[in-house]
Recover the amino acids of this structure.
């Protein structure tokens, strides 16, 4: 394999991993606060379709991005209402959100399928982009990818170093104790859910405005679910989310690798790889129930009401 | 001693609070001086916790007023209470196990100081009051007693004027409790008022200047504990003190039924306790009581006895000589085991299911299932019999388990086990959170079962209960079991020592074990 | 807060059964608003959606044809969900059932005996069960979350189906279209009556209905499943074998979904095509919840869902509305159901502003 091919693969790996990274970061914060939101796929698709429609109609890509994030937040606010305020089962509510979001986005986007759009183009950072391998991989990406780097740094700092991160972790571990201490559990969780929604919307916008600038039904192809598995894989730790997102990105572009080394495998079989990889990773990580207990937010997925 | 001429630090006037279905506090009046240690006595359900939550701002009273240093205040949340100088140590700790001591304290102190900034002060304050703490230790690595220190230091760091403690000694050995009292007396001498919730009369008499007794949501009396007898206090608490002072004759056991020999078990859970070289024998026709505070191996021992956790060596646990260590719970039940777990709802009974279904839950080997189908009529008959025989207050057997009060549900669960005529009954905390009347019924039922020839093992944190009903006593400490000794020949102090781990290793058989 | 929720203290039986109806009504109301926004009159649109498709006998037959796979999947899901085993893989299990049955069927096209059909159906059912068995194995052996594994398996199943239908199972005489050869007559499900498409899968569905009802309501295994779902700890405490129950529940759901899949390809479709399922497996999730995980309730909700499918097709043909309207309504209904369910345990109370002020004055006066 020559260096150009390797460079291309790394470049594609980062591009492909970016939507996973964004969704996983959002869901990480959400789960750390104790809320399991399975609606990622629905929020992503809705973000993608809204972003595309807005960008196409207005000619402004960034407006599309912002409104995609708003769209994601809107859907996630529905989730917050039913699962947090009404205290419904979080698994069922998340599934409902996915089914609704997918249906809504297909419905809304029906008239926009196949319309052409010029999306975000790669922008090379001067000097840094000339570094061999890393230059193409990290510094010749489009603006949304750079945004994802910045968001990762922000989330990492908040989760690891800030008081806000401490509060989120406390709320996720022991909402009763947090509430007794005067921490606003429901407010923290709602904000975490909204953040997750915004990130999912952003990831969707990335798909329809940068990765493959177009709208197609179910274009997220299960990435929302993979991101959920990613959070488990990362044992709810921020740095591992970054690692995992890019690894999964790699798994998704293995057909490039196969082409590069001259293998010809039917495309449908290659398309299965990311999903198989997800299962393998889940198996390897979940086997150690003790380790999961150590890192998983204790109250994850459990309904909670104040004044218990 | 408090000076009555000072303005009271805290005054409650006519506090009333209602929850759906019950009047938790009814026109409660209370007045507390600076430096006074006041006990708040009362049975479970008397309204003590609700009153504390109102003082600490966790909830608001429906009517009545709270005065702090003579000024009326309206406490909407714990933050406001803390600003006034009120601190609370909860019965079930409100600590975050995956965070460090410093991080836990920083969360409680509000924004403005990072955990690392707080470290020097934590060291200083904790040392000053005789409860040294390492700020960068993760809370899950601390013992129960150390965790309580964190709770207290957290309050002390906030310039405290009123400290409320909710049943603090329920998780401490008698020795640790004495150390706590030293700290509290020191605090009181510095002018801090202390509100001490408890139902343990001995401690209240040892520590508190005065006591307020709650019963059924109302104040039933004030007194000076040092001047009152146990009986007088008990009468104020429950009206009729029969259950508290019952005496049951002790029995001599017969043939051994449960034999645990050299049980070693390593806990895969990093937060849990491992068992070491456990030796235990319970004979038919006797009640063995095991004392110990939470976290010393009770849950693990109970899981190994019930079969939820299989023992590494089948012969380490035997019923009437037969190895059962490898058997599952239903198989052990077939060998004569019955089990009353510590948690009624969510372990012993399924909250959303009816009493009839809950009867089926453990009694399914008693002819209630035929050819894979449930015999509904027989199940209902069993449930009805349990309800009748054990005076369970419920409309009928279809009522969901969670609609019953704690005492009634416990009576149902115990009745369900007893009606299966077990050869061995293991009961964990059988009267925890249960009113006195139901507790007395439960004790009488256990004694009756013992007299009918069953072997009974009771694990409990309530030392009074253990002394009342057990024929032999022992204690669990750090995963080790003390040698068992006849109750009549054991004192509270001795038992306290065992609970703290002061006993000889039982891996070599001693003569005391034989009888 | 203007509206507050006051705990009832116990479940309201009335709301337990009214909540799905309320959810359906709210969905229709919301849908009507959507139609207005799109420039269509609500009532005629609802008529096109809900009444027209079943306005003749043929339509009723079509309703049942659509309802059958959904019903079978949902019955299987009900068993799993009662045990709180969140099997999201019904879609994949259905596809694999169709694939398994087809793989056998295309190799026995010449066979005349009715045993062909039996073999094909059994192959499909076992294939679906085996696919669900993968999820069970991953959970019991490796503690892997069944939601994620079953969804991944859905995507894998879809890709497997596409691979086979484009490749090894493609009809050599089919002009390169991605479809298999038509199955032999002996492998086709017989029709229930002429003039429609309603096939013998109806009998299987009825059988499954009775079997699942007996299992859940009357049998001891059903009791164990319910206990496992309501209270995992209690189930462990009394020695119910969790692993065995997980396997059983998943194998049953997989078998029923596989049966649904193979009935589709041996019934109305007659061959293996990529569009075996327009999302029946996912629809079954909503149907199971809407029917309260109760076999009788599921019958009604699967008929409703089938009606939505027909209605969506009809609306697309008659009014040019995107067919995704079906999915949209599905999602809305589930959301509304979950929201309305809150009324089972909580009572809504209108907190009027002046009431609060009066209370504050009273407290101030007492101080």
């Amino acid at each position: 394999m020559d260096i150009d091919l390797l460079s291309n693969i790394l470049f594609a790996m980062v591009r492909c991993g970016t939507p996973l990274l964004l969704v996983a970061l959002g869901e990480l914060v959400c789960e750390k606060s104790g809320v399991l939101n399975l609606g990622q796929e629905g929020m992503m698709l809705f973000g993608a379709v809204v972003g595309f429609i807005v960008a196409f109609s207005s000619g402004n890509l960034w407006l599309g991005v912002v409104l995609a994030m708003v769209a994601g937040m809107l859907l996630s606010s529905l989730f917050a209402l039913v699962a947090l305020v009404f205290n419904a089962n979080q698994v069922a509510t998340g599934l409902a959100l996915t089914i609704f979001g997918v249906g809504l986005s297909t419905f809304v986007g029906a008239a926009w399928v196949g319309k052409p759009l010029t999306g975000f183009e790669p922008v090379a950072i001067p000097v840094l982009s000339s570094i061999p391998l890393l230059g193409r991989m990290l510094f010749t990406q489009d603006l949304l990818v750079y945004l994802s780097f910045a968001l990762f740094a922000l989330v990492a700092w908040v989760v690891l170093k800030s008081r806000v991160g401490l509060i989120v972790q406390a709320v996720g571990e022991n909402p009763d104790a947090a509430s007794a201490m005067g921490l606003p559990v429901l407010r923290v969780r709602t904000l975490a859910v909204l953040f997750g929604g915004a990130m999912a919307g952003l990831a969707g916008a990335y798909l329809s405005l940068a990765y493959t600038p177009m709208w197609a039904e179910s274009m997220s192809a299960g990435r929302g679910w993979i991101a959920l598995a990613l959070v488990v894989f990362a044992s709810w730790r921020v740095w591992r989310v970054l690692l995992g997102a890019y690894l999964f990105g790699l798994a998704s572009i293995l057909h490039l690798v196969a082409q590069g080394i001259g293998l010809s495998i039917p495309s449908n079989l290659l398309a299965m790889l990311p999903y198989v990889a997800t299962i393998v990773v889940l198996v390897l990580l979940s086997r150690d129930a003790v380790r999961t207990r150590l890192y998983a937010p204790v109250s994850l997925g459990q309904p909670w009401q104040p004044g218990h | 001693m408090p000076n009555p001429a000072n303005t009271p630090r805290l005054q409650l006037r006519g506090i009333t609070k209602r929850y759906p279905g019950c009047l938790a506090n009814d026109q409660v009046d209370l007045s507390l001086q600076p430096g006074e240690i006041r006990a708040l006595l009362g049975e479970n359900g008397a309204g003590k916790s609700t009153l504390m939550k109102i003082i600490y701002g966790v909830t608001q009273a429906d009517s009545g007023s709270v005065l702090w240093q003579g000024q009326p205040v309206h406490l909407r949340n714990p933050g406001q209470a803390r600003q006034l100088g009120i601190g609370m140590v909860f019965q079930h700790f409100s600590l975050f196990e995956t965070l460090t001591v410093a991080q836990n304290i920083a969360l409680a102190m509000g924004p403005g100081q990072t955990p690392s900034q707080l470290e020097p002060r934590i060291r200083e304050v904790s040392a000053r009051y005789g409860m040294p703490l390492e700020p960068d230790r993760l809370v899950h690595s601390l013992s129960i007693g150390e965790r309580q220190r964190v709770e207290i230091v957290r309050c002390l760091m906030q310039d405290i004027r009123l400290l409320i403690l909710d049943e603090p000694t329920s998780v401490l050995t008698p020795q640790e409790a004495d150390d706590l009292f030293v700290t509290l007396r020191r605090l009181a001498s510095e002018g801090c008022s202390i509100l001490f919730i408890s139902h343990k009369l001995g401690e209240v008499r040892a520590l508190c200047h005065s006591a307020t007794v709650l019963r059924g949501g109302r104040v039933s009396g004030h007194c000076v504990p040092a001047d009152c007898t146990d009986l007088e206090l008990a009468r104020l608490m429950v009206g009729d003190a029969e259950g508290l002072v019952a005496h049951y004759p002790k029995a001599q056991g017969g043939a051994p039924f449960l034999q645990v020999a050299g049980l070693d078990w390593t806990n895969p859970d990093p937060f849990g306790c491992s068992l070491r070289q456990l030796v235990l024998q319970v004979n038919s026709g006797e009640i063995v009581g095991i004392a110990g505070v939470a976290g010393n191996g009770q849950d693990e021992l109970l899981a190994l006895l019930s079969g939820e956790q299989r023992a590494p060596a089948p012969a380490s646990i035997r019923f009437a000589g037969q190895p059962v260590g490898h058997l599952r719970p239903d198989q052990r039940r077939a060998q004569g085991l019955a089990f009353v777990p510590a948690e009624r709802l969510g372990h012993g009974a399924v909250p959303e299911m009816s009493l009839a279904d809950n009867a089926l839950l453990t009694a399914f080997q008693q002819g209630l299932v035929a050819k894979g189908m449930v015999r509904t009529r027989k199940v209902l008959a069993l449930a009805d019999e349990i309800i009748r025989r054990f005076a369970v207050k419920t409309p009928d057997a279809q009522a969901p388990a969670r609609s019953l009060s704690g005492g009634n549900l416990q009576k149902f669960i115990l009745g369900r086990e007893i009606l299966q005529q077990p050869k061995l009954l293991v009961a964990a905390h059988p009267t925890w959170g249960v009113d006195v009347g139901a507790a007395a019924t439960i004790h009488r039922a256990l004694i009756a079962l013992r007299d009918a020839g069953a072997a009974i093992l009771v694990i409990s944190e309530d030392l009074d209960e253990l002394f009342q009903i057990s024929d032999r006593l022992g204690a669990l400490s750090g995963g080790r079991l003390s040698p068992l000794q006849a109750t009549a020949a054991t004192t509270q102090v001795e038992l306290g020592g065992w609970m703290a781990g002061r006993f000889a290793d039982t891996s070599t058989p001693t003569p005391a074990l034989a009888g | 807060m203007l509206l507050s929720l006051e705990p009832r203290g116990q479940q309201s039986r009335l709301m337990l059964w009214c909540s799905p109806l309320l959810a359906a009504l709210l969905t229709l109301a919301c849908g009507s608003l959507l139609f207005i926004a799109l420039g269509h009159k609500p009532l005629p649109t609802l008529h096109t959606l809900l009444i027209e498709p079943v306005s003749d006998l043929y339509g009723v037959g079509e309703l049942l044809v659509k309802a059958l796979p959904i019903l079978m999947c949902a019955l299987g899901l009900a068993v799993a969900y009662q045990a709180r085993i969140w099997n999201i893989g019904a879609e994949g299990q259905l596809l694999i059932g169709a694939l398994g049955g087809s793989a056998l069927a295309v190799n026995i096209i010449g066979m005349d005996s009715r045993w062909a059909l039996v073999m094909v159906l059994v192959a499909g059912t076992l294939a679906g069960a085996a696919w669900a068995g993968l999820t069970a194995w991953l959970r019991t052996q490796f503690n892997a979350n069944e939601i994620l594994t079953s969804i991944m398996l859905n995507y894998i199943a879809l890709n497997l189906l596409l691979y086979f239908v484009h490749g090894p199972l493609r009809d050599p005489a089919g002009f390169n279209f991605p479809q298999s050869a038509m199955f032999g007559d002996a492998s086709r499900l017989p029709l229930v009556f002429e003039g429609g498409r309603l096939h013998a899968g109806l009998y299987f569905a009825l059988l499954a209905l009775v079997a699942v009802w007996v299992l859940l309501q009357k049998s001891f295994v059903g009791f164990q499943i319910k206990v496992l779902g309501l209270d995992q700890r209690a189930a462990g405490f009394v020695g119910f074998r969790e692993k065995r129950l997980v396997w059983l529940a998943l194998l049953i759901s997989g078998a029923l979904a596989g049966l649904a899949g193979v009935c589709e390809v041996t019934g109305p479709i007659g061959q293996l095509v990529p569009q075996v399922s327009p999302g029946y497996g996912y629809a079954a999730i909503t149907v199971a919840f809407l029917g309260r995980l109760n076999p009788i309730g599921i019958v009604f909700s699967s008929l409703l869902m089938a009606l939505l499918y027909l209605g969506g097709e009809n609306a697309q043909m008659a009014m040019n509305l995107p067919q995704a309207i079906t999915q949209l309504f599905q999602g809305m209904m589930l959301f509304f159901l979950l929201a309305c369910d809150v009324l089972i345990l909580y009572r809504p109370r209108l907190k009027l502003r002046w009431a609060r002020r009066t209370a504050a004055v009273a407290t101030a006066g007492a101080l």
Observations:
- Confidence is low (pLDDT under 50) at residues 507-515 of chain B.
- Residues 257 and 320 of chain B are 4 Å apart (CA to CA).
